[in-house]
Design brief:
- This protein is an alpha+beta fold.
- It has a domain at 3-84 and 105-185.
- It is 36% helix and 13% strand.
- A four-stranded antiparallel beta sheet has the order 1-2-8-5, sandwiched between helices.
- Helix 13 (327-334) packs antiparallel against helix 14 (339-354).
Length: 355
């Protein structure tokens, strides 16, 4: 089967599997991959050790796909829209409510669960199966956030969008609310054309970040990012960044919420929001016991923050709320057996009292 035919087959298979966009990128040493290595060495990845994984020669796996998968010749990138018709974080003003990132709200229609990794992977397998049915000699491998690959770089060269100043892939028609999945293949497939950068002179995302996580356009110090602080960071949060975290308890959408391209983003055909996770009550989050946490977030990305981390984040959000009615619950949390939760609750009480 000719390479052009395989590309069309992959696109049709992706559409049939429910993806909203698909394209093909070559396996090349893109400039973005060189920057990724420098970004890691500068310490901007914080404690995300999985991004720093190296091969036996000490070279970063994610920075050189050709070293990790020397058989790969093309990368099929598939995108799944997860936007829903619900308010953005910048529109929610109730001080007694927190914010969970939009990507973690969902119940998938076909799965009854909310873990996007499984959902995207199941659809990638459908595409992979059709490829192998037409080219059984091919070698393939599928990844959703777990592989030795910088997905957004390959998404750009697959024509799915440009890398915005907020470091997210932005599609001209679909915005940036996109899950990405990739299929590595040994097949030589003609690549798509990279999408042109359409951010122009807009800097809304850079200016809106409360913790000043952006070093420059398309460059982020992840260790200052609210998403990193509320999800990846374990233990004590840097005190100088807590006030900037606002009401966020899991992730952050601010730099995407203010992006003009997301004002016209279509609604997902695949996901429905669970109402209790959209702008959730801080009292509910902070008052959870471990069993309630497990049951509520069993199939959700929120479980990545861990029970301790989510309650820690809720305490910080309460302190940032300015609402003194949270004081009794914070006093109880200040005596919690978890020293991390207790310390952040004490900070929150002091912040409320100082106001």
């Amino acid at each position: 089967m000719a390479g052009q035919d395989i590309r069309e087959l992959a696109r049709a298979a992706a559409k049939g599997a429910g993806f909203d966009a698909a394209g093909v990128a070559p396996v090349e040493p893109f400039p973005e991959l060189d920057y990724f290595e420098r970004w890691i060495k500068a310490g901007y990845a914080g404690e995300m050790e999985y991004l720093k994984a190296a091969d036996e020669r000490g070279e970063l796996k994610r920075a050189a796909l050709a070293r990790v998968a020397p058989w790969a010749r093309s990368v099929i990138v598939c995108a799944l829209n997860y936007n829903v018709a619900a308010p953005m974080s910048t529109e929610c003003k109730d001080r007694r409510r927190g914010w969970i990132s939009r990507y973690a709200w969902f119940r998938a229609k076909e799965r009854g669960a909310a873990d996007y990794h499984e959902i995207v992977m199941a659809r990638l397998r459908v595409v992979e199966a059709q490829l192998l049915a037409s080219a059984p000699e091919a070698q393939t491998r599928c990844y959703v956030d777990t592989g030795p690959i910088v997905e957004r770089a390959y998404a750009r060269y697959a024509g799915l969008g440009w890398v915005g100043k907020n470091t997210c892939i932005i599609n001209q028609r679909k915005g940036s609310w996109l899950f990405l999945g990739v299929i590595l293949t040994s097949l030589e497939i003609p690549p798509d054309m990279p999408a042109p950068d359409r951010c122009g002179t807009c800097t809304r995302c850079l200016e809106a970040c409360p913790t000043q996580a952006f070093i420059a356009p398309q460059q982020m110090n992840a260790s200052r990012c609210i998403a990193y602080l509320t999800i990846e960071k374990r233990g004590t949060l840097p005190e100088e960044l807590r006030a900037g975290m606002g009401n966020h308890v899991f992730g952050c959408d601010i730099c995407q919420d203010v992006c003009p391209w997301n004002r016209r983003a279509p609604v997902s055909r695949s996901f429905q929001a669970a109402d209790e996770l959209v702008n959730p009550a801080l009292e509910w989050i902070a008052g959870m016991d471990v069993e309630a946490f497990r049951q509520t977030f069993r199939h959700s990305p929120v479980k990545r923050a861990k029970f301790s981390g989510l309650r820690r984040n809720a305490a910080v959000a309460m302190g940032n709320s300015g609402d003194k009615s949270f004081a009794p619950q914070l006093r109880a949390l200040a005596a919690d057996a978890d020293p991390v939760v207790a310390e952040h609750a004490r900070w929150a009480l002091e912040r409320l009292e100082s106001e």
